[in-house]
Every structure is written in structure tokens, then in C-alpha cells.
Design brief:
Layout (H helix, E strand, L loop, with lengths): L2 E6 L3 H12 L4 E7 L2 H11 L3 E5 L7 H9 L8 E6 L7 H7 L3 E4 L4 H12 L7 H10 L20 H11 L4 H8 L3 H15 L4 H10 L9
Parallel strand pairs: 1-2, 1-3, 3-4, 4-5
């Protein structure tokens, strides 16, 4: 079955461009469009998309609040949100990730990256390029706690190896890169990541990265 995509952006020309790119793919289907967050909520309820391609800055309701309502408690469907950002201008992307977005994509990304990002998010993974997550979190470090706050009790539920894996996830390494760094198999890394998400009550590795920064486990700018 095709992945059902809802396009949310207040610029009609951008939506048209995204639609042309996505409809050229046999496994993707654009089921609707919305020009702001309120319309997006209505469309999600009516159309039940698999992935919502969500702009941040929009009238009436921005992408952060729309993301929170789409992915939060009591949501109407399993839609995952992929945030669109201009990177240099959108200071609210960290908040969107906290709100429940599964990742983000730069608006000037090549067409093949857009397509692949949607497939990755639809499959339950956390975004196309983990390394960009770290760059983004570092860039907006002022929005995050200093790291001097008490360590959350939930962090103590992790084993030493799971803490290592969480740190590497937060620093933007893929599963393959983590496996090489720790000299274990990629399957083992996937198992550790799964345990981390379950123990911490997180949905995906994007939320895990934000958690690691917020808890002070990883400090912005640290190598």
C-alpha cells in the first residue's frame, strides 16, 4: 500500500512542488493539503495520513502546536510528522521535536532526500540524517537546559551500555556508526536502542536525542 502523505505549508507553490515530486513515486500518495495548523488537524482527522509534511511558520496555528495535537495523547490516528525547516530561521524546531515530530527536513533538500525521508519516517524510524539532529540541537542549545539540573531518575534504569548508545544517538551517529564505534553488530545496536526507548518511554531516536540533551547526559557542542 502507498504511504499516505498530507502536505502542510502556507505557500501554495511549495505544496505544488512537493506534490509533483511525491506523486512521481509509486509508493507515495498525496492525500491532501493544508495551509495552516488548524486545517492540518481537520485534514488529519478526515484523511488519516501516514506522514504529515509540516511547515513550522504558518498563520492561525503554527507547526509546533499542530504537531503536538497530531502526535499527542488522544490523537485520532497513527500519523507521523516530518517537520520542514529553513534551518537558519526556524528557532522552534527543537520545540517541534519535543512536541512529537519524528524528524525534520531542510526545505532546500534534494527531491530524493524528501522522498527517502518520508519513507523512513513512515517506517517508524526517526529521520533521514541523524548527524543533522546534532547540528540542530547544538545550534539551538540556548533553548535547552544547561545540564546542571539533577539527572532524571529514569536515566538510572539504563545499563552502562545503553547509556553509551544513548549518548551516541544524541551525537548523531547512525546504527551502523554506533556498531562500528562499540565493536558490536548493528542488530545489537538496534536492540539497545529499542531498550532505551522502552525504558525511557520515548517514541523514537529523535526524542531520545532531545532527552539526552535535556537531561544533561550530552552537552551542546560536546564531541
Amino acid at each position: 500500500m502507498a504511504i499516505r502523505v498530507l502536505l502542510v505549508d502556507d505557500q501554495p507553490l511549495l505544496r505544488t512542488g512537493f506534490r509533483m515530486i511525491l506523486e512521481a513515486e509509486q509508493d507515495l500518495a498525496v492525500v491532501g493539503e493544508a495551509g495552516d495548523g488548524l486545517q492540518a488537524l481537520d485534514q488529519v482527522r478526515a484523511l488519516q495520513p501516514d506522514v504529515v509534511l509540516m511547515d513550522i511558520r504558518m498563520p492561525r496555528m503554527d507547526g509546533v502546536e499542530a504537531t503536538r495535537q497530531i502526535t499527542g495523547p488522544g490523537r485520532d490516528g497513527p500519523a507521523k510528522v516530518l517537520v520542514l525547516t529553513t534551518f537558519d530561521l526556524d528557532e522552534y524546531v527543537v520545540e517541534a521535536l519535543r512536541a512529537g515530530a519524528s524528524g525534520f527536513l531542510l526545505k532546500d533538500a534534494p527531491a530524493d532526500e524528501l522522498v527517502q525521508a518520508i519513507r523512513v519516517v513512515a517506517a517508524g524510524e526517526a529521520m533521514l540524517a541523524p548527524s543533522i539532529t546534532r547540528r540542530l540541537l547544538d545550534k539551538y542549545a540556548t533553548h535547552l537546559p544547561s545540564g546542571d539540573e539533577p539527572v532524571p531518575d529514569t536515566l538510572h534504569t539504563l545499563t552502562e551500555r545503553e547509556v553509551e548508545v544513548l549518548k551516541l544517538v544524541a551525537r548523531g551517529l547512525s546504527n551502523a556508526e554506533i556498531a562500528a564505534d562499540l565493536f558490536v553488530s548493528e542488530t545489537t545496536v538496534k536492540t539497545h536502542v529499542g531498550h532505551v526507548l522502552t525504558k525511557l518511554g520515548l517514541r523514537d531516536r529523535v526524542q531520545a536525542a532531545v532527552y539526552a540533551y535535556e537531561s544533561g547526559l550530552v552537552r551542546p557542542g560536546a564531541q
